[in-house]
Design goal:
Length: 94
């Protein structure tokens, strides 16, 4: 082989070798392998039908809000601010 043939073919062999070594590797991210998917097919769900965000919305968004509204209404009843006094001498239309 002459030098010109070696100069042309050597880089081609090097590129082919790098392509085989680097291009055919399985660089899967964590949790994307077949065994990880088989072990946990629904990684986002915490219960059978709810994700962590849905649980947080139900607990913190809805439950705490309703409890706060009921507590303020109960506080009005406890402090007797719910309705006007019925101790007036004239009739009250409430």
């Amino acid at each position: 082989m002459n030098r010109r043939t070696i100069r042309v073919t050597l880089p081609l062999f090097v590129l082919a070798a790098l392509g085989v070594v680097g291009g055919c590797t399985n660089a899967a991210k964590p949790g994307e392998s077949l065994s990880a998917i088989r072990l946990n097919p629904t990684p986002a769900e915490v219960t059978l039908n709810e994700t962590k965000d849905e649980i947080d919305n139900r607990i913190y968004g809805i439950t705490f809000d309703q409890n706060w509204l009921m507590m303020t209404r109960d506080a009005g009843r406890v402090m007797l601010l719910e309705r006007p006094s019925r101790l007036a001498p004239e009739p009250i239309a409430y």
